[in-house]
Design a protein that fits this description.
CATH class: Alpha Beta
Order of helices and strands: EHEEEEEHEEHHEEEEHEEEE
Oligomer: single chain
Radius of gyration: 16 Å
Shape: globular
Bound molecules: magnesium ion
Number of domains: 1
CATH topology: Fumarylacetoacetate hydrolase, domain 2
Structural class: alpha+beta
Low-confidence stretches: none
Number of strands: 16
CATH architecture: Alpha-Beta Complex
Distance between the termini: 22 Å
Helix content: 10-25%
Mean pLDDT: 95
Length: about 210
């Protein structure tokens, strides 16, 4: 699946209570950023915490796998262009995110984008989806798509106004309240009401021989 993934377009602060927990106002339009496809890992692969990164957080999210070409797609047609719904963890180096003026480094480390297997979007009601996150078996996040500031169909339409979405692109649609720190030895699982889930152990990153 990963060889077919293109860009990963992410939405920040899409739940009011999550924006509040980090001390931010609710945005008036979607706050977008990108994660590199090199951050992707599947079910079971370790999230590697860089030794000098400071606090690294989980962010359980509803991910959308784009199936069609979207340019200026109206909201009423947006869901037709979504092939699959995936559990996604927008792992974030929070200390670096606060230090940098943009989020490329904090969100872009290798292993910082675990995704589960897609569940077919056709037949699902996007407004009824929910996401939950567990760390070491303890419930940490519970979010409903109905509580999003910018709903899923709107996001596909909005992004397609200025950035053509292509088959294989992924959208990470924001995390609900309850984000928290991951430490080596933890196990984190993001699961969606539609059945997609992704579970990953957390390890300290080790220096490796460079690969080219
Ligand atoms: Mg996020």
């Amino acid at each position: 699946m990963f060889s077919e993934v293109g860009k990963i377009v992410c939405v920040g602060r899409n739940y009011a209570r999550h924006a509040a927990e980090l001390g931010h106002a609710v945005p008036s339009e979607p706050l977008l950023f990108l994660k590199p496809p090199s951050a992707l890992i599947p079910e079971g692969a370790p999230i590697r915490v860089p030794p000098d990164a400071g606090r690294v957080d989980f962010e359980g999210e509803i991910g959308l796998l784009i199936g069609g070409r979207c340019r200026h797609t109206p909201e009423s047609r947006a869901w037709e262009q979504v092939a699959g719904v995936v559990a996604l963890n927008d792992v974030t180096a929070r200390a670096i995110q606060r230090r940098d003026h943009q989020w490329t480094r904090a969100k872009g480390f290798d292993t910082f984008c675990p995704v589960g297997l897609p569940v077919q979007a056709a037949g699902l009601d996007p407004e009824a989806l929910s996401v939950s996150t567990r760390v070491n078996g303890q419930s940490r996040q519970q979010g409903e798509a109905a509580d999003m500031i910018f709903p899923l169909r709107f996001l596909v339409s909005y992004i397609s106004r200025f950035m053509t979405l292509l088959p294989g692109d992924l959208l990470a649609t924001g995390t609900p309240e309850g984000v928290g720190r991951l430490r080596p030895g933890d196990a984190v699982e993001v699961s969606l009401s539609c059945g997609s889930s992704v579970s990953n152990p957390v390890e300290a990153d080790k220096p490796l021989a460079p690969t080219y």
